[in-house]
Amino acid sequence: MADTLTIRTAGIVTVQDLGRVGRSRYGLPANGAADQHSARVANVLCGNDERAPLLEITALDFACVPSSDILIAVTGAPADVTVEGGVRPQWEPVPVRAGETVKVSGIRQGLRVYLAVLGSFEADRLQGSCAPDTILGFGPALSTGDELVLRTACPPLDHPFSRIPLFRLKAPVPPFPTSWTIDVTDGPDRAEFGDTGRRLFDAPFTVTPRSNHIGLRLQGEVPRRVTKGEVLSRGVPIGAVEVPAGDELLVLHRGRGVTAGYPVLAVVTATGLSALGQVRPGQTISFRHRTLDQAVAAHRAQRNAIDALRSRVRTAFDALRIRAPAGT
Question: For a disulfide at 166, which of 20, 176, 316, 318, Cβ 3.0-4.6 Å?
Fold first, then answer.
């Protein structure tokens, strides 16, 4: 009988990965983890491939119980993480024995928490990804009582191991501020806004409750297009900052449709997108202009930090003789 991870308190939790890369040409949104950085780090901390399936926990409390010994990592927004009532750290590998209850509660400052398991677990896939797609009805949210089939068990580890320097791996933890600064580069229609385009950077915007994984709706002093003429529908990137005719900005996120017909004033950078995946309704966003070179440099620095973490994890796991199956 296969070992499982049983959901005890579901809250809002889905099985995610990094999404459907290269499928926009077929009309499929990328989807995937809203905070890609936290998702990557969670998997790397468990010795997995960074694209392995993991759990995305949004806003509400969550609990699960494994049927065998496992190793987990919990990243993302600050939260209270316990194993059988004992407090455990985020952004580090944590051993869990069979039958112990893992709880994630009190998610704060950000919106989403990621839980990865050594070896990952079985998941259905669509076009190479397990990421849910609400339009196609693929990958519904998990419910209390659902079971995920684990791909491997962790060798027995005494809990003191989690308190020694081997497990202080210095994961790259991003800030979780009360007011967010999101980096953007110029969009294809920047020139159509004239001087009003500066409004994007002059004052903060507030995230409205109508925001979701498809896009964020922002209230504030909206820039206005000064040129005339219709904007034809065309392909739009994840992170496009669109300016409709009303009193809101739209910032497209990973569940966005692949075409749209609003002018695009700016585009959120790759690092900015991960931060944007943690912004809660009611929080404020200030946009910061970046050149393409600056955006690429920030993305490379973030990826280099993950690569360095992967090396430290490999060294620690080798010392403890922990092995994840190939392909996780």
Answer: 316
Q: Mind listing the pLDDT tens digit for each residue in 165-206?
A: 556 789 999 999 989 999 999 999 999 999 999 999 999 999
Give me the residues paired with residue 63 across strands.
9, 103
Could you report the per-residue pLDDT of 54-85, keeping only the tens digit for each?
999 999 999 999 999 999 999 999 999 999 99
Q: Extract the tokens encoding 105.
A: 């509660």
Eight-class DSSP state of 194 = G
Q: How far apart are CA 90 and CA 81, in angstroms?
A: 7
Element (H, E) at 201: helix 199-202
pTM of the model: 0.94
- Per domain, the residue ranges of the chain are 4-173+303-320, 179-290
Phi and psi at residue 205, to the nearest 5°: -120, 150
Asked if 78 and 22 touch (Cβ cutoff 8 Å), the reply is no
Residues in the chain: 328
- The residue whose two tokens read 């964020």 is 216
Q: How far apart are the first and last CA of the chain?
A: 21
